[in-house]
TrEMBL record:
Record-annotated Tyr recombinase domain positions: 1-130
Keywords: DNA integration, DNA recombination, DNA-binding
GO biological process: DNA integration; DNA recombination
SUPFAM superfamilies: DNA breaking-rejoining enzymes
GO MF annotations in UniProt: DNA binding
Protein name (database record): Tyrosine-type recombinase/integrase
Higher taxonomy: Bacteria, Pseudomonadati, Pseudomonadota, Gammaproteobacteria, Enterobacterales
InterPro entries named in the record: DNA_brk_join_enz, Integrase-like_cat_sf, Integrase_catalytic, Tyrosine_recombinase_XerCD
Family: Belongs to the 'phage' integrase family.
Pfam families: Phage_integrase
PROSITE patterns: TYR_RECOMBINASE
Length: 134
C-alpha cells in the first residue's frame, strides 16, 4: 500500500512513512526473498557468511555497508545522516512546506528540521527576487 511503519525510530517513536511506487515495488520484491516472518525487521544484519540474520540492521551496520559500496563505486564517503540531510534539503528545494518535511523526517520540533536545511544563499536570493512590490 506504499506505507512503511517505523516501530522504533529515534527516541523509540512510531510513525508511518509513505514511499514512492518504485520503493514500494522494491520492498515487496525484497520481502518475497528475505522475509521469514511478517513481523520481522525490514532490514536485517547480514553475517560475514552472507546469511541474513534475524536481528535488525544497526546504524553501524548500515554505515559499514555504505562504506563498502562507496569504496567499490569509487565515490566520496557519506553517512546515513548525510542521506537524511540530502532528503530534507531536496524536499525543501522542490517547494515542499517545512511542516510536511518535518513530519516526513519524524521530527517533533520544526527547529530540528531547519538544522538539516542545506540550501544555502541561492534559495534566499531566488526568493528575494520573486517578491512583488506593486
Amino acid at each position: 500500500n506504499g506505507i512503511l511503519t517505523v516501530r522504533q525510530g529515534k527516541g523509540r517513536k512510531y510513525r508511518e512513512i509513505h514511499v514512492a511506487d518504485a520503493v514500494d515495488k522494491a520492498i515487496r520484491a525484497w520481502l518475497k526473498v528475505g522475509a521469514d516472518e511478517a513481523d520481522s525487521a525490514l532490514f536485517r544484519r547480514i553475517q560475514r557468511s552472507g546469511k541474513v540474520a534475524s536481528q535488525p540492521l544497526t546504524t553501524t551496520g548500515l554505515t559499514g555497508i555504505l562504506a563498502e559500496l562507496q569504496q567499490t563505486a569509487g565515490i566520496a564517503r557519506f553517512t546515513p545522516h548525510d542521506m537524511r540531510r540530502t532528503f530534507i534539503t531536496r524536499l525543501l528545494e522542490q517547494g515542499v512546506d517545512i511542516n510536511t518535511v518535518r513530519q516526513l523526517a519524524g521530527h517533533s520540533d520544526i527547529s530540528t528540521t531547519t538544522r538539516y536545511d542545506c540550501r544555502g544563499d541561492t534559495m534566499k536570493i531566488s526568493a528575494s527576487k520573486r517578491i512583488r512590490c506593486f
